[in-house]
Specification:
The protein is mainly beta. The protein has a domain of 133 residues: Pnp Oxidase, Chain A (Roll). The chain has three helices and eight strands. Strands 1, 2, 3, 4, 5, 6, 7 and 8 form an eight-stranded antiparallel β-sheet that branches. Bound molecules: flavin mononucleotide.
């Protein structure tokens, strides 16, 4: 049986932001930064696809052939909500779940997310290798893949947060709260903006 993990205290303001920005589809886009082996950050836009049920892990999808996969597990997500003018910076560890995972629960979560994708998004996992020299147009003409069987290069990407910095620009003065995971417990405190 899956152990239920209590919702982290930053989940409530985040849920509130998601709700209040629900009319803006772009509020599901965030920037995910990883660390390259040469020490430079690597940053890219990604769609946040909610949480893995039963915990605080954020869900994303990515291509197993993309560069981020080789950039270690340390990451930070920067997520801005335009309507309410607030930012969440979420630091944590990444986990890439491909078809070779030995965890049946995660394999099921990967299949579910594959099923939820649009046809166009599913197709992109069959495109020629990302970052390589541009392939001929024919290489992108592909039959839509089965919506039940994930493509080999389809990865469920999870982020387990350890630190959250929430800044609200509205308010005089602005509000900024820090949430930190210490020995398995979330500590929260307000700081100057
Ligand atoms: C609006 C938008 C949404 C995107 N969503 C995703 C996504 O959900 N997953 C993903 O891997 N890349 C997504 N991308 C592409 C990434 O930004 C990036 O170009 C790609 O993942 C390769 O990154 P990498 O070489 O650092 O691994 C998105 C790009 C944009 C502009």
């Amino acid at each position: 049986m899956m152990t239920e993990i209590p919702l982290a205290p930053w989940r409530s303001p985040l849920a509130h932001a998601l709700h209040r920005n629900r009319s803006l589809p772009n509020s599901r886009y965030a920037q995910l930064a990883t660390v390259r082996s040469d020490g430079f950050p690597a940053n890219r836009t990604i769609v946040v696809r909610g949480f893995l049920p039963g915990g605080n892990q954020l869900r994303f999808v990515t291509d197993g052939r993309s560069e981020k996969v080789g950039q270690g597990d340390r990451a930070e997500l920067c997520w801005y909500f335009p309507k309410t003018r607030e930012q969440f910076r979420i630091r944590g560890r990444l986990r890439f779940v491909d078809g070779g995972s030995g965890d049946e629960g995660l394999l099921k979560a990967r299949r579910m997310l594959w099923h939820e994708l649009s046809d166009g998004a599913r197709l992109s996992f069959l495109w020629p290798e990302p970052g390589m020299g541009r392939s001929a147009p024919e290489a992108f003409v592909i039959e839509p893949p089965d919506n039940m069987i994930p493509a080999e290069d389809f990865c469920l990407l999870l982020m387990e947060p350890i630190y959250v910095d929430h800044l609200e620009l509205r308010g005089e003065p602005q509000n900024r709260s820090i949430y930190r995971l210490e020995d398995g417990e979330w500590e929260m405190g307000d700081v100057n903006p």
